[in-house]
Every structure is written in C-alpha cells, then in structure tokens.
C-alpha cells in the first residue's frame, strides 16, 4: 500500500509540473534522426564541454558588445573579447557558418550523414557581429550599476558549491552564471536553456522556445532590469 501511495504522489508531482524534465525532443533543436548527436557524442568528443560533437573553422572573429554600444552597459569594463563557454558552443551553430559533426551516428563514424551538417539562416543566425545582440561573456556585478541610469540589477545567490545565479526580481527564476571561480559570467545560457527546461503558454507561437522563464509582459527582461 505504501508503494502504491508513493507512486501516486510521484505521478502527481510530475503532472503538476513541480518537476520539469528538459528535452530537445519536439523542439526546434530536434533536427536529425538522432537529435542528441547533433551536439553530443559519448566518445572521442572535440575536447569542449560537455562531450561536444560539433566542429567549425570560424572564418573571421567575433565583434563583442561593449560599453561603446550602450552608455548604460555598466558591466562592460573587462568584458571578454570573444564568447566564453557555453556561449561559444551556442554560436557554433548560431553564427551562420557551416558546422559539421566530429562523430556521425553509426559504426566508427564511417558514414557521414549530411542531415547532421548545419548552417543556420534567418532569425537564428546571429553572425559574427554581436554588437546588435544582448551582451554576453561579461562579469555580472550589480554593484557596478550606475546611479545615473539605475537599471536595478538583482544580486547573485549561490545555488550550489560551483554555481551562482541571478534570482529574478519578479519571478524568482534562477538565471545561471558561468565561468571559472567565482562563476559570475553572464552567457547565452543565463537566459536560455538549450534543452527547453521551462514550460509556459504560447511557446513556439507567441513566445520563443528555450527561455528560462515566460517573457509575457517582458517578465524575463524585468527579472533583471527591474527598475525599467
């Protein structure tokens, strides 16, 4: 009887959405017969994390968003000159340049399949000029918020021993930070979950996939820029 009751409780939690399981299946990242292989391989990976399966010889260098692009970018001092992890992994596909696999599915990688080769076009193509996109690869430090523009950035909380996050001022969502200690780098994955972890209305129609929180009413934006 106890086992049956426990099963009912677990199923109830799953249905209620208290536990969310991230998956690319059925999302725009579900791109090939073996969708996990589009980005990951269990053996002989490229050396980037986590078990990265894509390779690309970038033609040119990135132009990063900096203080010159916005007078209110208070955290631009010391921003990286090139995208850091995991943003550089996202950009392997989203910079609009051709990308192929390290290991194609199948025995010993002997049958390259063009279904896994990629060159993103359209609105998903950010190109190499990132000055017209939200800044990434900078150290998030709310103490640098200038009183003259007062964006109102929320503080950082320590989620685990190795993971810090911005706590959304409105929703309480964890927007994770990256990089080596003290793990305070703002990257693409701060706002986006590549495995589509969050559930919200309108996803794929009125709201984009892969956000860490629903942006209806600009909630995701105002979670960080809460004085705007």
Characterise the protein shown here.
It is a single chain. By secondary structure, the protein is mostly loops. 14% of the residues lie in helices and 9% in strands. The protein is built from four helices and seven strands, in the order H-E-H-E-E-E-E-E-E-H-H. Strands 4-5-6 form a three-stranded antiparallel sheet. The longest helix has 15 residues, at 2-16. It is globular and about 60 Å long. Mean pLDDT is 85; it is low at 1-20.
Which residues sit in consecutive blocks of at least 5 with pLDDT less than 50?
1-20
Q: How many H/I helical runs?
A: 4
Helicity, in percent? 10-25%
Strand order of the largest sheet: 4-5-6
Q: What structural class do the secondary elements suggest?
A: little secondary structure
**Spatial extent as radius of gyration:** 20 Å
Kindly estimate the percentage of residues that lie in beta strands according to DSSP: 5-15%
DSSP strand count: 7
For the termini, the CA-CA separation is 54 Å
Write the element-wise H/E pattern from the N-terminal end onward: HEHEEEEEEHH
What shape does the CA trace take? Answer: globular
The overall pLDDT, averaged over residues, is 85
Q: How does the major sheet shape up?
A: 3 strands, antiparallel
């Amino acid at each position: 009887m106890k086992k049956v009751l426990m099963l009912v409780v677990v199923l109830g939690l799953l249905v209620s959405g208290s536990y969310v399981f991230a998956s690319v299946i059925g999302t725009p990242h579900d791109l090939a017969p073996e969708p996990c292989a589009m980005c990951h391989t269990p053996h002989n990976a490229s050396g980037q994390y986590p078990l990265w399966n894509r390779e690309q010889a970038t033609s040119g260098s990135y132009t990063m968003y900096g203080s010159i692009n916005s007078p209110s970018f208070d955290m631009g001092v010391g921003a990286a000159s090139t995208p850091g992890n995991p943003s550089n992994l996202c950009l392997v596909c989203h910079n609009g340049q051709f990308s192929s696999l390290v290991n194609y599915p199948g025995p010993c990688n002997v049958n390259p399949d063009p279904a896994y080769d990629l060159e993103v076009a359209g609105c998903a193509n950010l190109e190499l000029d990132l000055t017209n996109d939200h800044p990434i690869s900078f150290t998030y430090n709310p103490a640098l918020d200038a009183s003259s523009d007062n964006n109102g950035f929320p503080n950082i909380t320590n989620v685990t021993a190795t993971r810090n996050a911005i706590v959304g001022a409105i929703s309480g969502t964890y927007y994770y930070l990256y990089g080596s200690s003290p793990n305070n780098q703002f990257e693409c994955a701060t706002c986006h979950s590549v495995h589509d972890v969050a559930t919200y209305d309108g996803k794929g129609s009125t709201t984009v996939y892969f956000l860490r929180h629903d942006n209806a009413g600009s909630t995701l934006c105002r979670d960080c820029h809460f004085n705007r």
